[in-house]
Amino acid sequence: MDEKTLIAACKQEDRKAQQMLFERYSPVMLGVCRRYLKREEDAEDVLVEAFYKVLTNINQFRDMGSFEGWIRRIVVNEALMFLRRTHALQHAQELNPQIDAGENATIEEEISARELLSFLEQLPTGYRTIFNLYILEGMKHREIAELLGISINTSKSQLILAKQRLQEILIRQRYPLQ
Amino acid sequence: MKKRRDVFDAFRESGQQLKATPSSSAWRKLEGKLDAQRRRRRIQFFGITSIAAVLAFVVALAAILPLLDNARQTAYAKTENPAPQSFETLIPVSEADEAPIRAVEFSRQHERAARPIAEGSSGQKLVLAFQAESGGSK
User: Fold this and answer.
1) β partners of residue A107
2) Which residue in the set B12, B15, B33 is minimally distant from A52, CB to CB?
3) Taking Cα atoms as reference points, which of A105, A176, A167, A174 lies closest to residue B5?
4) Which helix (H) or strand (E) holds A106?
5) CB distance A166–B7 less than 8 Å?
């Protein structure tokens, strides 16, 4: 079943189509959830809640953009809401905005998805969230600041610190950085 | 020889590949939530429909009751207090003309409960009352 037919069937609340949609997109979206949330159980709860919103609001989806992108936005928002609910984002502090970001290190090796996840799990929630939103979702600091209700400088400083921490982790893991 | 690249570009690429299979209970949880939502929507629909039906009934009743009352009053007026169908002019009779009046009176009496006529003995003759008064002496 192609994507348009699947969406049309889900708009008719066809249960088999809903299950098919869940099975098609849930692995990628659970990967997204896992990047934001350390605990697997929390990630799966957020996934279920996000897909519930996807399926009950699917009539709002217009064929203007990517359907997967639309689902991803809902999943990311749901993960952020979960973090806010559990107060995990309250301790994100603004550090000195003049902090030197320095040059990013370069690497020859591939970083596997599994390794990426284990590196992200070592970051504090605030660093990890902003790193995810900026580096992996491609959002701007202004957008991140609005989304999380923080200042642009906080977003910038959290990202710099996240990058520094990740480079330290990579060195500890004996990745040949330059 | 491998090409060197920004470490965070490497992160971005591997981030796109990150996938995980949800547990088998994930779909069951989602299906349960969808079923509950469908039930809630049905209950809301029937609730709204029944409220609308009750409101429509009340409005219809308010509109029909005055009409029913009018019809009832009209029916009452027709049966209990009928309008005269025709008029008859009563012409007063002179006192001298007693005979018709008496006849009317007789017929009225006759219409009442019939009383047995005292016929008297076989030698007596049955006459009208006014004849008896006028000619009885004969």
Assistant:
1) B5
2) B33
3) A105
4) strand A106-107
5) yes
User: Cβ B19–A117 below 8 Å, yes or no?
Assistant: no
**Which amino acid does the sequence have at A27?**
P
Tokens standing for A55?
């399926």
Residue with tokens 């299950």: A19
Mean pLDDT by 10 residues, chain A (178 residues): 92 94 96 93 96 95 89 96 80 56 70 85 91 93 91 90 88 71
Tokens standing for residue B105:
């009176």
- Is residue A50 within 8 Å of residue A67, measured between CB atoms? no
Q: How far apart are CA A50 and CA A76, in angstroms?
A: 9
Q: How far is CA A115 from the centre of its chain?
A: 16
Structure tokens at A80: 């952020």
* A47/B27 Cα distance (integer angstroms): 10
Residues of A with CB under 8 A from a CB of B: 13, 15, 18-19, 22-23, 26-28, 30-32, 34-35, 43-44, 47-48, 51-52, 55-56, 104-113, 115-117, 135-136, 163, 166-167, 170, 177-178
In this structure, what is the dihedral angle of CA atoms B3, B4, B8, B13, given to the nearest 10 degrees?
10
CA distance A7 to A14: 10
- For B33, the closest chain A residue by CA position comes to A52
Q: Is the ipTM value over 0.90, yes or no? A: no
The structure tokens listed for B6 are 């920004």
The answer to whether the pTM exceeds 0.80 is no
Coil, strand or helix: which one is B78?
Answer: helix
* Helix A152-172 and helix B7-17, axial crossing angle in degrees, nearest 10: 90
Q: How many CB atoms lie within 10 A of CB A56?
A: 15
For B4, the closest of A47, A108, A136 (CB atoms) is A108
Which 3 state secondary structure label does DSSP give B55?
helix
B44 residue type, one letter: Q
Smallest CA-to-CA distance from B30 within A20, A2, A80 is with A20
Sign of the Cα torsion B32, B37, B38, B39 reads positive
